[in-house]
Write a structure and sequence with these properties.
353 residues, alpha+beta, 2 domains, 14-stranded mixed β-sheet, 21 strands
Amino acid sequence: MKELVINLHIHTRYSDGHASHSEIAQAAIKAGLDAIIITDHNVLVNGMEKYVRSDNGQVLLLVGEEIHDPGRSPQKNHMLVFGANHELAPLAPNPQKLVDSVRQHGGLSFLAHIIDLAAPAVNEPDISWVDWDIQGFTGIELWNGFSEFKSLIKSKLHAVFYAFFPNFIARGPSPAALEIWDKLLVNGQHAVAVGGSDAHALPASMGPLKRTLFPYEYHFRTINTHVLLPHDLNDNLGEDRRMIFQALAHGHAFIGYDLPAPTRGFSFSAKGFTQTAQMGDTIPAKNGVTFQVRLPQPAECRLIKNGLPVKIWKKRQSCTFITAEPGIYRVEVYTQYYNQRRGWIFSNPIYVI
């Protein structure tokens, strides 16, 4: 399998971002990304998808959309849409119709920043996802970098501190988001989890203090989604695009916080009596299943079954677990960074039946 590192929640000047597609692509190349997906608010910008190259490398630039109902106050229920190739923003007031239409057009739908709490100190409202009656969506944005920043702003002083020292921000997905995800999985929804930076490069000021929250290149070195493809990109835009979206649809992916240390190289697989499985796959429990986890470097690794830890390894790089019990198994990995325990890797599940 070929691993690609993707940042998939990004805004340009077409909505509330502060750079062009080309400028953002150059920042992605500098950060070492393989692909990016632009998701401007309620506008599908056509004609931008391409390979962008420079002396430092190349990145595949794809375009999706973040859709929400601008007539709703506060503006809940934001959805990331990939691969539909149609402007579906008019359906935003009815999330179920939106999900159904995305699917009919062959696209993917991810519920964005499902926990996005208010930050009254900077006049930011709660824009969490609230319509949990919908069915058929592809997955959820489990970890959103900008939402986590908002959750830490208890005062204007906090805002200033984290604006100037962003390496102290990320700790992991919200516990409430993890609880929602596990509940969806246990209830039979194969919800694929992705992580996004929600990059805007917002200019901010407070008196004489001025700062960009946060530069695109910085965001691209933090929370990314790593996808596993059957082979490397081959410079065929249509085929490469299709391959990436198929991997996301099947959950052949994990979330990596790449700032403390690169998460590239992580693997989580299962071997049964007659077959093997990777993240997103289903495997029979009959005759037992052996899980194998390999980390880029030693860390704390947790194997989660149906939302509860069944095994915890400390300072390990390779972990093995054998079971004959059906369940939904996923992996969480934690590491130390700036003298604090940080979420590092969150896998998509393997389904044992």
